[in-house]
């Protein structure tokens, strides 16, 4: 039953579309001189708008070029500042390291000069000790008491 209703609806729709002409719904309106003048005015307005759009594009492109140049100049300035900072830091580190090396050299030089008198004195004392030991051995050979004292001290 449902299928029959659908088929009836389809057949009625097709028949209405075939038998009722669409041209009866359209109105035939004459094209007047006023309509023609309006179209010409619209075309002129369209041309003037197109000129304005083209001029706007040119101005916009010019402004974009100017902004691009300004941005490039700023980047060049920033690059120059970075190079200046880098150069300053390299000089600063160079001076710092040279001062550290100079300080290490000064410390070594100072230690050597400060220890030199103590080393000379130690050498003098050692030489005196050798001389005294030689004299005591010679005395020990002549005197038995000196020899016994030196044996007791562990020198002989």
Characteristic terms for this protein:
single chain; 156 residues; mainly alpha; elongated
Relative strand content? under 5%
Q: Oligomerization state of this entry?
A: single chain
Structural class: mainly alpha
Largest sheet: none
Tell me the domain tally: 1
Structural overview:
- The chain is mainly α and about 160 residues long.
- The protein has one domain (about 40-155).
- Helices cover about 90% and strands about 0% of the residues.
- The chain has three helices and no strands.
- It starts with a helix and ends with a helix.
How is the topology of this model organized?
Layout: H1 2-19, H2 33-142, H3 144-153
Helix pairs in contact: 2-3
